[in-house]
Structures are given as structure tokens and as C-alpha cells.
Specification:
Chain lengths: 512, 216
């Protein structure tokens, strides 16, 4: 129970309600509110440009972002209710109510103080004689005004005259009105916020629509970013994207390439085409080899890396082919039989392959230094030998094989077969383009006739057919040959269908 | 597995075809009876990519005279020289050229050492006597295709790219005419491994034999 005079009542009002409200930082509140409002306006302008012509943001990611923005603007509008570019309705209402209550209370207090000072001084709050200033159903719950309200609610006045009672009641009514306004503002429900975005998913969709990467590629990009950032490396998104777009399929390989600073040498179409044939572990091994080599050879080029890979593949092809010809391939029983039946021929073929390709290729110690000329030359000889070997096996399967890789006067015959009791000499050219092989094939055909008395010569082109075979000029040349040797049968034979390249299964195992 | 080894020799623009034929026969020691001339019919084939010439003419003097007039044609070795073919192709960038083919089976050192050594002795004579600008002999067929000559050798000659021209890791024999040799002496173009033979020739030219065998 409080024992106080009217003067104390006025003083309590001033100290607990009027003074704090007068000290309220209205200017700062307005500044904060204006700043918030301007931020929203800025966001709208920036996003508006993103969707503006001539090159508006389009696609799935665009749609997703537009929906998210729309949700945000709606929530923001419900929260701030900006009618103009001034302060929001909610803040405006709050400031106005507070300023108004201060103004009204000051007026009422002046009127109260203008009452008879003796009566006022004599008026005391005495226990037991109470005037409840709160309504029967009202409860004093507003926190800011609690002191005052509680004071008012718990107070009892001895009022000297009716006029004073009316003034006190007026003051209490003003306070209750302000209290109700504050309650109303506080009780306004918060606007429903848009659902939280799953940012990882939104990035995937976003970039898939924006940069043409598939979801798998985008995941790979994201994985590579995670790997690099977790290792403390700064991430160049464009380089990661370039590598993934080029065809690298393993994020750890992409991360390793960037981590080793080897982007330039691996971001090369030819290199990628070879790297894609390797397993994940083999690719990582290759990246490590390049990284180590670059420490002493900082000018290493992508072409050198390509040649290293090409060399490694060719080494694998050579060893596989030599094993196959030698009958050492357990999955090729035909070759094993031929090796048993024609040991001298097999040896001759293997020795020639060794001399023309193997000796040099297998002696290489630094594949980064192998030149195009060497690789092209080895490849020509390797594919030639492979084609010949494939045709030898084919004729063996047909039961026609008589001889192969046999020395002749002026050279060597690729294959001799017997068809319907006729011995035929076969010259094989496993080439993709006949241009540079044609004259050599025909010269060889002529040599077989002139130097060895061949009467039936077959020019066999496994990579060609009737539509891709000799040109009219080349056929004319064949006519010239037939005219020069009218007693000889010269035949063009296409197929059988064989790969141009010798098999190179899992050649990455040859990466040291 | 019949392949060829070979290479081009490029001669000075003023060298007549008839002189080149005579020089070739002399330097490569192709005596009468050791060669045959093959001529095109109606001008074809003009280049190896069109085909191989089969027409023969008698006597050999007439055949040689016709060869001097034709745009292209070949001299084929016989007997000891039966593995050798000399293509007289159309000039390239004004330079008369000879494209030499040799059957690789004649050039394996394990069985044909004498023949290999004999060829390595005769080949620089042809270059030197013809005062060649540049010549090379390679174990790889693609390096003496006409398009390789046009796309790699001639541009390298024009820009004086000795590294590209010499291809020292591949070529078995290399002849640098006096002008190129002088530049080589100044530049000292590096080799992947020391050449087996490196000779200054009287004309100021330089001859390299990179290794014993044609194939490395």
C-alpha cells in the first residue's frame, strides 16, 4: 500500500512514463526505419535489373529466384506496410501514440497542478479508503507502463473535491488508452515469412539453368569446391567449371588439378580425351606425375602431357599385341594355335614389330619429351602390324592361311592364302585414308609379281568398303597395273571389319 | 608387315630434271642394268597419292629422256638395288625434289648391315653432288609423304626452323645445305643424343648420321 500525496502521484507519472517517453530516440528510430526501407528498395532495383532486357535472367533458376523474391516482398510489405518512402505504418503508429500520451498528460498535469494547492497538499493516499481506478475487467499488464499502472491500480486517493477526482480519472483514462494502443501494436501478429530456401538445391538448379551444366556436373563442381575450400585453397569457380565442362568426371581429380596449379595443361581437349579413358585412381596418379614434373619443368605444355598419355596408351597396345601374336594371350586360342603351327612366322612378325616400334618405344625414359613424329611413326607401324595380324587370324579361321610375314625377293609378303587351290599373295593396308598408302600397295603388288612370280595378288583394305575405297584416279591406276601385267589377277578386297586401333584395354595401368 | 623407309632431298631451283636424273644415277651408283624407269601414262599418276607408274619404255636411254620430260616418274633399282625407288616428283616451292623409298626389310641392320652401310655412304653423295638445300631420311612413312613435305618441311625451311627440319630424334640421315649448315654451326641446335656421324663437307654443307640403324 502506497502512502503518497497528489504531488507524489504527479511526480511518479513524470518519472515513470512521461520522461522515458520524452527520451525515446525518435530520430534514430526513423533513421533505422528509413534505412531498412531503402534497403528493400535497393534490392528491388538490383533484382529488377537482373530480369531486365536485353539479356534477362531466364530458366529454372530464374523462376526459382523470382518466386523467392516475391515471397520476400510480400512478407516485407506485411511487416512494414510502406505506403510511401517514409517510415512504416507500425513505427509511425508507435511514435505517434507515445508523443500523444506525453502531450495529453502534460496538459492534464498542468490542470491538476492548477487546483487549490492547500487541498492538493493535504490530499493523501491512505490505506483502507480506496478508489479503484481500473475497470472491473481490466488487468494491468503492459510492461512499459507497469509501474504507473500498478501504482495507479494499487493507489487509493482521498480526494478533497470532485474536480480533482475528475482530473485524476482523466489522467488514468489517457494512460489506459496509451496502454491499449501499445498492447494492440504488440499483439499484431508477425507476417508469415516465406519458407526457408534449401540453398544447396537452389544452387544446383540455378547453375544448371544458367551455365548449361548437367546436375551431375554441377554436383561435381560443388564437390570440388567443397574439397578445395576444406583444404584452405581459394576457389576459382570458372576453372572448376571449365574442367568439368571439358569432361573431367571426378571431383577429386578436378580438385587435384587445381590444387597442383596444373589447370592450363589439363584443360585441353586432347588431354581430356585421353584422361577420360583412365580410372579415377589413374587420373589422380597422372595429375601427381604432372605436378612433380612441373617442379623441374615449369614450361611443361598440354601437348607434352597429351603425348605422355598417347605414349602410355601405345606402350600398352604394343605389349598386348606382341603378347597376342606370341600366343601368350590366354583368351585368344586362335593366336595360341597359330603360334604353335607357324613359330618361325610368328617370330619374324614379332621381331619386326620389336625392331620398328618396340626397341625405341620401350626405351623411352621421359615420355614428356616424345615427339609427334615418333608417336605418329610408331602408331603407323603399330596399326599396320595389328591390321595384318587380324587378317592373318581371319584367314586362319577360314582355313585358308598358308604363310605370313615371309621374306621374298625384294621384300616380304604379308600373307599367303590358298583359295580353291590357288595360292594368293595378300598385301594388307590397315589405313584410314588410302591416299598415302595406295601407291605403296600397288608397288608392292607389282614387286610380288615381278620379283616373285605371283599370279594372284589381293590388296586388302580392312578399313574401307566399296564406297570409301580407291578413288577413280586410283582405280585407273589399278587398270594401268593390270594392263602392265595382263596374266596376273589383281583383286581389291575390303574388310573384314576390325578396329583400326589395336586393343588397349585398361592402358592406364602402364602409368607408373 | 611391309613398310618403307625413306625421305626427300630438295635441290636448288635451277637444277634441271635431266641433270638431277644423271646425278641420281651417278651418286646412288645405279649402273645400267641396275635400274628400270617407270613412267606415267597421260601424265598420271602425277603424285604418289594418285598411284604408282607402271609404263616402261625401251631402251633405257629413251626412258630416261622421257622421265626428264614428264612431271613425275620413278627409277626402280634392280639386283642389289632392288629395294630402292627414286620418285622424281613435281617441284615444290620451285625446288626440284627426289623422294627416295627403300623397303624396310632391306634396312634391318641385324641381317642387312652391309646394305645399310652402303646406302648411308651413297645417300650424302647425292645430296652433295646435287648441292642440295636440305635432305633427310626417316624410318617413318608419314615423314616422306608429300603432304608432310608441303606442310612441315617447306614451311620450316622458309622460316629457318632447324629443330623442325632436322627432327633429330627420328631421322636417320640429315643433310644441311651450305646455308642451313652455316646457321646450324652458329645456333648449335641441340641433339637428344650425340649423332653417330657429324661431317663438314667440302661445299660447306653438313651431314649427320644419327645412329647406326635406320630404326632407333
Amino acid at each position: 500500500m502506497v502512502d503518497a500525496t497528489i504531488s507524489a502521484f504527479i511526480q511518479a507519472l513524470q518519472e515513470n512514463l512521461i520522461a522515458p517517453l520524452q527520451q525515446m530516440p525518435v530520430a534514430q528510430l526513423k533513421l533505422l526505419d528509413t534505412t531498412h526501407d531503402q534497403s528493400v528498395v535497393d534490392l528491388q532495383n538490383v533484382m529488377g535489373q537482373l530480369y531486365a532486357p536485353p539479356d534477362p535472367f531466364q530458366g529454372k533458376a530464374s523462376d526459382m529466384l523470382a518466386v523467392a523474391l516475391e515471397d520476400y516482398y510480400a512478407a516485407e510489405n506485411r511487416l512494414s506496410t510502406y505506403v510511401t518512402d517514409e517510415i512504416s505504418e507500425r513505427i509511425s503508429c508507435f511514435i505517434q501514440a507515445c508523443q500523444q500520451v506525453v502531450s495529453e498528460l502534460e496538459t492534464q498535469i498542468k490542470a491538476l497542478q492548477a487546483s487549490d494547492p492547500t487541498v492538493m497538499a493535504a490530499s493523501t493516499l491512505v490505506a483502507g479508503e480506496t478508489v479503484d481506478l481500473m475497470g472491473p475487467d481490466e488487468s494491468p499488464i503492459v510492461p512499459i507502463a507497469q509501474l504507473v499502472v500498478v501504482g495507479l491500480a494499487g493507489a487509493a486517493y482521498i480526494v478533497g473535491e470532485v474536480k480533482q477526482l475528475a482530473q485524476v480519472e482523466q489522467i488514468c483514462a489517457i494512460v489506459r488508452q496509451w496502454e491499449a494502443t501499445m498492447n494492440e501494436l504488440a499483439a499484431q501478429p508477425e507476417p508469415t515469412l516465406p519458407p526457408s530456401l534449401d540453398l544447396s538445391q537452389s544452387v544446383v538448379v540455378d547453375m544448371a539453368g544458367m551455365n548449361g551444366l548437367s546436375p551431375e556436373q554441377q554436383r561435381e563442381v560443388n564437390d570440388a569446391i567443397s574439397r578445395l575450400t576444406s583444404l584452405g585453397y581459394s576457389v576459382d569457380y570458372s576453372e572448376i567449371e571449365a574442367l568439368v565442362r571439358a569432361g573431367y568426371q571426378f571431383s577429386d581429380v578436378v580438385a587435384a588439378i587445381l590444387q597442383s596449379g596444373s589447370f592450363a595443361v589439363f584443360n585441353d581437349t586432347a588431354v581430356v580425351s585421353m584422361m577420360k579413358q583412365l580410372t579415377n585412381a589413374q587420373q589422380l596418379k597422372m595429375v601427381a606425375i604432372v605436378e612433380a614434373y612441373r617442379k623441374t619443368h615449369p614450361d611443361l605444355t598440354s601437348h607434352q602431357v597429351y603425348n605422355y598419355l598417347r605414349y602410355t596408351q601405345m606402350k600398352s597396345q604394343l605389349i598386348s599385341l606382341m603378347d597376342d601374336i606370341s600366343g601368350k594371350n590366354p583368351s585368344n586360342p586362335i593366336a595360341q594355335t597359330i603360334a604353335t603351327m607357324y613359330p618361325a612366322n610368328v617370330l619374324a612378325l614379332v621381331v619386326r614389330l620389336q625392331q620398328k616400334v618396340g626397341n625405341n618405344l620401350l626405351s623411352i625414359t621421359d615420355p614428356f619429351t616424345v615427339t609427334d613424329n615418333k608417336l605418329d611413326g610408331w602408331y603407323h607401324n603399330l596399326t599396320g602390324a595389328w591390321g595384318e595380324w587380324a587378317i592373318i587370324q581371319d584367314y586362319y579361321k577360314q582355313g585358308k592361311l598358308v604363310n605370313f610375314s615371309a621374306p621374298t625377293t625384294g621384300g616380304e609378303v604379308d600373307i599367303q592364302i590358298s583359295e580353291s587351290g590357288v595360292t594368293k599373295w595378300v598385301e594388307v593396308k590397315n589405313v584410314q585414308n588410302l591416299n598415302n598408302a595406295w601407291s605403296k600397295a600397288l608397288q608392292q603388288a607389282k614387286n610380288l609379281v615381278v620379283n616373285n612370280g605371283a599370279k594372284d595378288v589381293i590388296l586388302q583394305f580392312p578399313q574401307q568398303d566399296a564406297s570409301t575405297g580407291p578413288s577413280p584416279q586410283q582405280m585407273n591406276n589399278l587398270t594401268q597395273l593390270r594392263k602392265a601385267y595382263p596374266g596376273v589377277n589383281f583383286e581389291i578386297r575390303y574388310g573384314p571389319s576390325i578396329p583400326f586401333d589395336p586393343p588397349a584395354n585398361n592402358w592406364g595401368t602402364y602409368i607408373p | 608387315m611391309t613398310d618403307l623407309v625413306g625421305g626427300y632431298i630438295l635441290f636448288p631451283p635451277g637444277l634441271k630434271r635431266s641433270d638431277l636424273i644423271t646425278l641420281t644415277l651417278q651418286a646412288m651408283e645405279l649402273a645400267p642394268g641396275e635400274f628400270e624407269v617407270r613412267l606415267p601414262e597421260d601424265g598420271l599418276p602425277r603424285l604418289p597419292e594418285d598411284g604408282y607408274p607402271f609404263r616402261t619404255e625401251k631402251p633405257v636411254e629413251r626412258a630416261l629422256a622421257l622421265l626428264a620430260q614428264e612431271e613425275s616418274g620413278v627409277i626402280e633399282g634392280k639386283g642389289e638395288k632392288e629395294f630402292e625407288t627414286y620418285w622424281f616428283e613435281p617441284a615444290i616451292a620451285l625446288a626440284p625434289v627426289v623422294n627416295i623409298w627403300v623397303s624396310d626389310s632391306a634396312m634391318f641392320y641385324d641381317t642387312q648391315a652391309k646394305r645399310v652401310e652402303d646406302f648411308a655412304r651413297r645417300w650424302p653423295h647425292l645430296c652433295e653432288q646435287g648441292q642440295a638445300v636440305f635432305g633427310y631420311f626417316s624410318p617413318f612413312e608419314h615423314m616422306f609423304d608429300r603432304d608432310y613435305l608441303a606442310q612441315r618441311i617447306v614451311p620450316a625451311l622458309e622460316r629457318g626452323d632447324l629443330v623442325e627440319l632436322m627432327a633429330t630424334d627420328c631421322n636417320w640421315l640429315i643433310y644441311l645445305g651450305p646455308e642451313l649448315a652455316q646457321r646450324w654451326r652458329q645456333e648449335q641446335t641441340p641433339f637428344p643424343s650425340p649423332p653417330l656421324l657429324s661431317l663438314d663437307l667440302p661445299s660447306g654443307a653438313h651431314f649427320f648420321r644419327m645412329r647406326t640403324e635406320v630404326f632407333a
